[in-house]
Amino acid sequence: MDTKIGSLDNCKPVSNDVCSQANDAVSTIQGSVSPAVVNCSKATVGGHLAKRLVQIGVNDVFSVPGDFNLTLLDHLIAEPGLNLIGCCNELNAGYAADGYTRSHGVGACVVIFTVGGLSILNAIAGAYSESLPLIYFVGGPNSNDYGTNRILHHTVGLPDFSQELRCFQTVTCYQAVINNLEDAHEMIDTAILTALKVLGMT
């Protein structure tokens, strides 16, 4: 599969608004699936992610819904090319996505912050050890919650929100925390492309 991401600079939002550039700039991912275009002037972060998943051949996304990922799941559901498959728990979602990746070449999974991410860790480690291009998204706290020293639900009881990220660093080829809209589209594209390149898809 020859995957190529078009100009990332064209997809950087110019403001803190949910939309990107007003000049109808486009970015493409081309691969074994038919080429598709993301209109960055109208793409929300969730919409951009949904389009990218379809472009790389993901049709089914395995998930466990929760308060930290509901908005993202709404955007994934709105994408006609994606089916959202709800799972009974995160580990189940992770292994279902692993099996999907083995049969379809690439897969995706969405869970919630900390309790979901730590639960799915064994499935992530297994996919990584098998060099599977499985892309995980973990819904997290609002960006204004970072650095407040507040303890939030779904955490291990400490104000440090980076504990889960540190766990992922040892069993994934790329990690990113999206805290602002300026970098969101580029970070999503980099995460997807890195998974496909490092894990042998390109």
In short:
This protein is an alpha/beta fold and 202 residues long.
What would you note in describing this structure?
The structure is a single chain. This protein is an alpha/beta fold. The protein has a single domain (4-198), classed as Rossmann fold (3-Layer(aba) Sandwich), CATH 3.40.50.970. It is 37% helix and 15% strand. It is built from 7 helices and 7 strands; from the N terminus they run E-E-E-H-E-H-E-H-E-H-H-E-H-H. The strands form 2 sheets. A 4-stranded parallel β-sheet has the order 5-4-6-7, with helices on both faces. A 3-stranded antiparallel β-sheet has the order 1-2-3, with helices on one face. Strand 2 and strand 3 (36-39) form a beta hairpin. 37% of the residues are buried.
Total helical segments: 7
Top-tier CATH class: Alpha Beta
Structural class: alpha/beta
- The average pLDDT is 77
Spatially, the strands of the biggest sheet line up as 5-4-6-7
Report the portion of residues in β strands.
15-25%
**CATH fold call:** Rossmann fold
CATH structural architecture: 3-Layer(aba) Sandwich
